[in-house]
Structure formats: C-alpha cells, structure tokens
C-alpha cells in the first residue's frame, strides 16, 4: 500500500530532554557555594504543518526516518540548556496523521495549521530546585525525559471540486488531460491510474476549478476488489461527482446504477453529493444513437455527451460543472 503517494508511513522520533545540572558554586571567596545547576532544555517536537501549495504526499514518499534534536543539558550559574529544534513536516490540506494503533492524531484542515504529533521530552530540573532548609547543597538533578518514538502514517483524502467516477477505461484520464495541464498516464488497459491525478481546469475569465481523476472502480470495489477502498476514500472529499459512462458501454444507465451502488455500499453519505452524468467518447456516436442513449436515462438524470478527443461538448460540460459549483 505504501507505494501510493496518498499514503506514507514514517518512523518519527522527538528529541530527549536535556539533563538538569547538579553543579555547586565554587568561587574564590565563597567556600561553600550553594547549588546553581540549570535546567535541561526540552527536546524538539515533531510537528505536522499544512501547506496549501502541496497537492500530494509525494515529497515525503522517500523519507523513512524523521528525528528531532535533543535538548542540551543545563549548566552552572543556573544556565538553562538550549531547546532542541522542532521538525516540521509539511503536508497538503486534508492530510490525516495516525499513530501505530491506527488512531487519528490530527487532521490538517487549513493552510499553516500546526499539529504536534510527538512532543519533545521535558528537560530535567537542575539541583537549585531541590535546595531546602534541611538540604542546603543537593548534589542531584533530574535527567531529561525521553522523547516519543514510533511510526506515523500520513493519509491524504484528495481535495477537489469535481471527482471523476467511472469504470476503468471510461475516459477519465483522457478528459483530465484535455481540460487541464495534468499529464495522467493513459492506456487502454484497466487500472492505468494507480494514483489520483489532480488537474486545474481553466474556465472563462481566468477562473478555474480542480478536477480529480480517481482510479477506476469496478463492481465489488466496496468489498475491496480491484483497487477497492483506497480510492473510494478519495471520492469522499470531492464536492461534485462527475460520472463517466463510455459511449461503447452495453447498458449506459445500468452502468451508472452499478457505480452509484458501489458508492452507496462504501458510504451512503456520498449519495448526498451533487451528481453530473456524462457519456464520454461521444465521437463514436451519431445524433440518432445519442437520442437512443438519452432515452435510457430518467428525465432528471439526462447525461451530457462529450468527446475529449474532438473537444465536442467540453465547454458545455465545464459550464454545467461551474453552475453546480456556484449555485
């Protein structure tokens, strides 16, 4: 699973706290100086930070270990040790971090938001803190507390305005490459798209929206067949779902119903999203065939016909998407 860019597992270790100092003052005219040991510095923390310029977890993909600095030990003259530097892990908005038990530590919902994943160890107290009426010269100090250590899993549920839903080879990658600068892998075998692709679609008057090509799901994806749950997850975060039924499908409306059922099995709330139905590869059809296919669909679910190859219907499709996004 970890070879997909939306799922990264990293071994993290926050810094140990520095030890407190057990120093006793030894000055020329003060033969019996009291304790003056300073506190140890706290260890560095591991912090997840939102970055709206990141779209995937790809930059973290080859990171195996992340370690924060330890705090420095305390010194004489009540000198506190320097704190260890924190380590920031920059992630796209929408990233969830989980601990080894699979529990969610936190989720990044906005740019620059910070969540401490592992706190640095506390620095130990110096011996000056342990001076009392009965113990004028304590010769002990606290050791620093250890940092935390373990694997953290980062998961990204894609944030896009429009998610493309369809069986493998429905033409989703071709559509994305036709309407945006995204360069998804395109081939005529199932599951070409192993990782979701994001494309920024330019609209009229320099406006734009984000479209996500989500890997093809097949009947039974909700039970984990095909590419299964990994990719149904991505659909959760798209505000509109654009269903692509290829022109050369045997049963167009039936294919839509199968796709719809997969989403329902996985998460019934997905059915509350806006749906747009379309028939792709419509350069294969004449007007008569389009009329026949349209008849398969109920009045309130008429599809938009388009061809990403010839450009036919693409502007109409963008208009409909834009209208849905801004109603």
TrEMBL record:
Subcellular location: Cytoplasm
Molecular function (Gene Ontology), one example: GTP binding
Domain OBG-type G: 160-326
Protein name: GTPase Obg
EC number assigned by the record: 3.6.5.-
Record keywords: Cytoplasm, GTP-binding, Hydrolase, Magnesium, Metal-binding, Nucleotide-binding
Quaternary data: Monomer.
Main function: An essential GTPase which binds GTP, GDP and possibly (p)ppGpp with moderate affinity, with high nucleotide exchange rates and a fairly low GTP hydrolysis rate. Plays a role in control of the cell cycle, stress response, ribosome biogenesis and in those bacteria that undergo differentiation, in morphogenesis control.
EC class (word): hydrolase
Biased composition annotated in UniProt, kind: Gly residues: 34-44
PROSITE patterns: G_OBG, GTP1_OBG, OBG
Region entry Disordered, spans: 15-45
Gene giving rise to this polypeptide: obg
Pfam families: GTP1_OBG (PF01018), MMR_HSR1 (PF01926)
GO biological process: ribosome biogenesis
Positions that bind GTP: 166-173, 191-195, 213-216, 280-283, 307-309
Lineage: Bacteria, Pseudomonadati, Bacteroidota, Flavobacteriia, Flavobacteriales
């Amino acid at each position: 699973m970890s070879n997909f860019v939306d799922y990264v597992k990293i071994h993290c270790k926050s810094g140990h706290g520095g030890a407190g100092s057990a120093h006793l003052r030894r000055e020329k005219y003060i033969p019996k100086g009291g304790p003056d040991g300073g506190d140890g510095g706290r260890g560095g923390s591991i912090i997840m930070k939102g970055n709206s310029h990141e779209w995937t977890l790809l930059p973290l993909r080859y990171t195996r270990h992340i370690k924060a600095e330890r705090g420095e030990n305390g010194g004489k003259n009540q000198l506190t040790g320097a704190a260890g530097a924190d380590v920031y892990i920059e992630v796209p908005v929408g990233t969830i971090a989980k601990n080894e038990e699979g529990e969610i530590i936190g989720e990044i919902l906005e740019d620059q938001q910070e969540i401490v994943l592992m706190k640095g160890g506390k620095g130990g107290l110096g011996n000056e803190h342990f001076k009392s009426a009965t113990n004028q010269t304590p010769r002990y100090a606290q050791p620093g507390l250890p940092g935390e250590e373990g694997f953290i899993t980062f998961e990204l549920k894609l944030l896009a305005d429009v998610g493309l839903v369809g069986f493998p080879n429905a033409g989703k990658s071709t559509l994305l490459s036709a309407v945006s600068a995204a360069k998804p892998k395109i081939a005529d075998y199932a599951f070409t798209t192993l990782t979701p692709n994001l494309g920024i679609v330019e609209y009229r008057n320099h406006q734009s929206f984000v479209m996500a090509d989500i890997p093809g799901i097949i009947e039974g994806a909700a039970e984990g067949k095909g590419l299964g749950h990994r990719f149904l997850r991505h659909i959760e975060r798209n505000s509109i779902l654009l269903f692509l039924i290829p022109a050369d499908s045997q049963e167009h409306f039936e294919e839509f119903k199968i796709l719809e059922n997969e989403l329902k099995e996985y998460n019934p709330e997905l059915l509350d999203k806006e749906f747009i139905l379309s028939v792709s590869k419509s350069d294969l059809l004449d007007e008569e065939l389009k009329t026949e296919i349209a008849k398969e669909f109920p009045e309130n679910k008429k599809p938009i016909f388009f061809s990403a190859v010839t450009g036919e219907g693409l502007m109409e499709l963008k208009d409909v998407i834009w209208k849905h996004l801004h109603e």
